[in-house]
């Protein structure tokens, strides 16, 4: 009987290791926007909203590489409330006294391109254009600081995370900040 338990546990551990699950593995603590706003009301902290779609390859790359990087995980969990938002989903979202929805949503297109959610249109445009992925940074008062478009590697997102979390954006131009920035994350070989 004891031998059977040992075999069962060994098989279970092997199965978990082959599907990528590691007990105790750190992950970004993703929240809904409503959860993040509620937590922010109790303990103010900046927010980071990953606006993505189900069909977006660069979004998936950020999920698999950037948002799995140990530095990014630790830094985001410590300094931000992290929100994952489907830019073409069907959720009704209450945000800053308004209700946002996706009236063009088509359930038949749930796994492909779909209508753009109203919240995406409110938060994600950069120079009037929406692209995926877009990470939107909000301050402790839930006001948009900046939307940053494009798939970023861990070494590329590090200075952005620190720029906003440290409030450097309030008194240093981004170009000057970049000149002085000393990275912790080594640049990736592309």
Described by the principal axes of the CA atoms, the overall outline is globular
User: What percent of the residues sit in helical stretches (DSSP H or I)?
Assistant: 25-40%
Mean pLDDT: 89
Distance between the termini: 51 Å
Strand composition percent: 15-25%
Q: Please name the fourth-level CATH homologous superfamily.
A: Glutaredoxin
Describe the structure.
The protein has 190 residues and is α/β, with parallel strands linked by helices. The protein has a single domain, classed as Glutaredoxin. 37% of the residues lie in helices and 17% in strands. The strands form 2 sheets. The protein has a 5-stranded mixed beta sheet with strand order 1-3-2-6-7. Strands 4-5 form a two-stranded antiparallel sheet. Helix 4 packs parallel to helix 6. 24% of the residues are buried.
């Amino acid at each position: 009987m004891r031998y059977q338990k040992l075999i069962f546990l060994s098989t279970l551990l092997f199965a978990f290791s082959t599907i990528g699950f590691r007990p105790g593995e750190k992950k970004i603590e993703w929240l809904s926007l409503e959860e993040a706003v509620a937590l922010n009301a109790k303990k103010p902290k900046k927010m980071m909203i990953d606006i993505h779609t189900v069909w977006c390859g660069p979004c998936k790359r950020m999920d698999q590489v950037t948002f799995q990087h140990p530095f990014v995980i630790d830094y985001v969990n410590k300094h931000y409330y992290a929100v994952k938002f489907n830019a073409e989903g069907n959720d009704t979202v209450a945000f800053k006294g308004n209700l946002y929805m996706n009236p063009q949503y088509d359930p038949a297109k749930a796994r492909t391109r779909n209508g753009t959610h109203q919240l995406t249109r409110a938060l994600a445009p950069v120079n009037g254009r929406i692209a995926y992925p877009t990470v939107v940074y909000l301050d402790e008062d839930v006001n948009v600081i900046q939307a940053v478009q494009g798939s970023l590697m861990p070494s590329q997102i590090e200075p952005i995370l620190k720029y906003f979390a440290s409030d450097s954006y309030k008194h240093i131009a981004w170009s000057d900040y970049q000149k002085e920035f000393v990275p912790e994350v080594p640049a990736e070989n592309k």
